[in-house]
Amino acid sequence: MQTALFIIFGLLAVLGALNLLFQRHPINSALSLIVVMMSLAVLYWSLGAEFLAAAQVIVYSGAIMVLFVFVIMLLNAGEEERTHGSQIAYIAGIPGAAAIFCLLTFVFLSEKKQLGTTQLGGYLTSAVSNITEISHTLFTSLLLPFEVTSILILVAILGAVVLARKEL
Amino acid sequence: MSHITPSFTTFLLLTIVKIVVVLVITLTAVAYTVLLERKVLGRMQNRWGPSRVGPFGLLQPLADGIKLFLKEDMMPLAVERPLFVLAPIIALSCALISISVVPFGAKTMVGGVDLFQIADLNIGLLVILGITSIGVYGIALSGWSSNNKYSLFGSLRASAQLVSYELALGLSLVGVVLRAQSLSLRDIVNSQSAHGMRSWNVFGGCQIIGFFIYLMAAYAETNRAPFDLPEAESELVAGYHTEYSSMKFAMFFMAEYANMITVACVATLLFFGGAGSPFGHLFDGFASTGFLHAVLPIFWFVAKILFFLLLYIWVRATLPRFRYDQLMSFGWKFLMPVAMLNILATALALAYHG
Questions:
Q1: Which Pfam families does the entry link to (chain B) (predicted)?
Q2: Model's pTM, two decimal places?
């Protein structure tokens, strides 16, 4: 059952990502990205990270992608024109992507023991909430990085306001 | 009894039955909410409202439905066809999905399956918020794909308004979550069931500020008066659904009313004790077993929902529309900070009391 869920949404994520690349209209690409994010949320959920899944849906698909779609709608961006691209992209791109893929596979396979394993869908039926654990970690051992990140985001917001003011 | 794990077939069958029943009831409720709104609005404006079809106009929703079904489904030439069709589907399905985590009554297990709730998730509240935030796409895409400037304006207004008020809405609920220490809607309801009305979050829980923030943000989330800027007919023809006709328009219409019902459900569950009786366990001896024990909580739940729907209609009949910049500054400069202060105060009080 859970394996079926994993296969369906894993395939959906991959297909969405491919569709994102092949679509010519930016709004279709943005919508495919939303599909990818939603399927990722389902995968997180099936791995027992229900809070991460909800945050993924609310923050990424619900807030950030709405802004993307908003901007595309406001700019009224037309269909992209297909160019052949530079020669370098062809020469370096495919080997580069293959290299990254190989590297990641190597790391995951060699560090398999340290990373540990989790049971697919093992947590779906249980009533254990991992929100308590997440918040405990965030507010004790990871407090400093957490607070620094929030200040970083605040700085970014202020920067955006300053940049927007200059144009007025 | 709850430790019995049901066999897969029982679970599947009962769940499908539950889904069908809940969908039918919700859609009927949507149809009759429209009638209720037209009737009450009529009486508040000193006229009769629909009264011709059936006794007291009770068959009016049926007539409306038939009319919308039989209308010609116009497809304007310049629309972005796939998205134009997809948008009302997204709007309606998102509005209907979120009802699936709502507990309608007391926990009643039959064959290991809870009868009055489709899915008891441990992040039920976040699921509702997430699905609401996905629902924005229905409106945004409908306006853009219509290829009409009024539709685009309407949908831009709507999406900006929804994204802004979602923050205030989410923050206003944090106080309740802090008190219940859980995101499961069932747990939140149970945390308010001790002494009836006195332990409801809105009274005993001191979440009355959170409740009013939620109420105002919810009006904006459902695009209802006085925040119905996206479909301000004097400026924008009809807003994002200008180009829609027949069933596609009806889907937007149904989505709006289904969202109203969902929002009323959430308000009831989080602030008014859900399906709990306002008298607590005072009359438990009167209906401790059997049919009445299962049905009484549903009666309370429906009564509370009805109260919120009437409040909606009352507000629509009373208040004029906001100006758009007033709406935005109200959301960001007033509701947001007050919601933050509410969280702070609740957290401090909880930390003090332990």
A1: NADHdh
A2: 0.83
CATH of the domain at A111: 1.20.120.1200
- How do the pLDDT tens digits run along chain B, 354 residues long? 344 566 778 878 888 888 898 889 888 888 888 888 888 888 888 888 888 887 887 888 888 888 888 888 888 887 778 888 888 898 899 888 888 888 887 777 776 677 777 777 778 888 888 888 888 888 888 888 888 888 888 888 888 888 888 888 888 888 888 888 878 888 888 888 777 777 777 777 778 888 889 988 988 888 887 887 777 667 777 777 777 877 888 888 888 889 889 889 888 888 887 777 777 666 666 666 667 777 788 888 888 899 999 998 898 888 888 888 888 888 888 889 999 998 898 889 888 886
**Does some domain include residue B31?**
no
* B337 prior amide bond cis, ω within 30: no
B152 touches chain A (CB under 8 A): yes
Substitution target in B9, B93, B114, B133 with the highest count of A β-carbons within 10 Å is: B133
Count of structural domains within chain B: 1
Could you identify the residue written with the tokens 């229905």?
B138
Structure tokens at B104: 């309608």
- Residue B354's nearest CA partner among B194, B211, B181, B200 is B181
Q: How many CB atoms lie within 10 A of CB A11?
A: 11
- ipTM rounded to 2 decimals: 0.78
Residues of A whose CB is below 8 A from B83: 27, 31
Do A113 and A135 have their domain in common?
no
Q: Which residue of A has its CA nearest to B134?
A: A62
> Is A73 in contact with B160 (Cβ distance < 8 A)?
no
Range of the domain at B205: 67-353
